[in-house]
Amino acid sequence: MSIMEYNGGSVIAMVGKDCVAIASDLRLGSQALGISSNFQRIFPVTDRVYVGLPGLATDVTTLRERFRYRVNMYTIKEEREIEPETFAHLVSSTLYQHRFGPYFIEPVMAGLSKTPSGGYKPFIAATDLIGCLNFAKDFVVAGTASAKLFGVAEGLWEPDLEAEDLFETISQTLLNAVDRDAYSGWGAIVHVITKDKIITRTLKGRMD
């Protein structure tokens, strides 16, 4: 078994019309043994940027604190909030610094970036464990159920989904994909980021 799969868990981010969603399952395991059904994998970076960290649980905690520190330093130096694109490159450089002894995490980022006209544009990205960035216009996935997530998301996602439709699409994608993966599941959490508010909902999933 790969060390990336040791604790299980999956994350997905999707783009909608002037909104973006990021969701993860809630299972923490030690291989096939279930340990917890409320393990947090998605963390707020700013009011408009969230990051999901699927992979080894110890590195989830370490990287969360490292990103928090680096974002705080950026905010103090630049005297402004970090934009999603900038945060994506911060994540990439942090992981690449440790490429010879990497963190076993494949981050997924979602947020709304400001446009010059004053509006907001949805942004999603993911990286591998050494920080190779992957930008997408539709959705990005990571974790032990990533192959299943790709399949379901390809079938369900449509362009320009409104916030409620995007919530429904990402929820159905995640719940149906993790049901086919032994290392993910046990419920889910979904964050939908719009320009006015952030909607967070916890979903019940199969517990077998």
Notable traits:
30% helix, globular, five-stranded antiparallel sheet, 4 helices, alpha+beta, single chain, 208 residues
What does this structure look like?
A hairpin with a 5-residue loop joins strand 8 and strand 9 (133-135). The protein has helices spanning 57-78, 84-97, 146-156, 163-178, and strands at 10-15, 19-25, 28-30, 33-36, 42-44, 49-52, 108-114, 120-127, 133-135, 139-143, 188-194, 198-203. With 208 residues, the protein is of the alpha+beta class. The model has no long low-confidence stretch (mean pLDDT 97). The chain is globular and about 50 Å long. It is built from 4 helices and 12 strands; from the N terminus they run ββββββααββββααββ. The strands form 3 sheets. Strands 10-1-2-11-12 form a 5-stranded antiparallel beta sheet, with helices on one face. The longest helix has 22 residues, at 57-78. Helix 3 (146-156) packs antiparallel against helix 4 (163-178).
Q: In order across it, which strands form the biggest sheet?
A: 10-1-2-11-12
Mean pLDDT: 97
Structure summary, number of beta strands: 12
Q: Helix fraction? A: 25-40%
Quick overview:
The chain is α+β, with helices and mostly antiparallel strands and 208 residues long.
Topology:
Blueprint: E1 10-15, E2 19-25, E3 28-30, E4 33-36, E5 42-44, E6 49-52, H1 57-78, H2 84-97, E7 108-114, E8 120-127, E9 133-135, E10 139-143, H3 146-156, H4 163-178, E11 188-194, E12 198-203
Antiparallel strand pairs: 1-2, 1-10, 2-11, 3-4, 5-6, 6-7, 7-8, 8-9, 11-12
Helix pairs in contact: 3-4
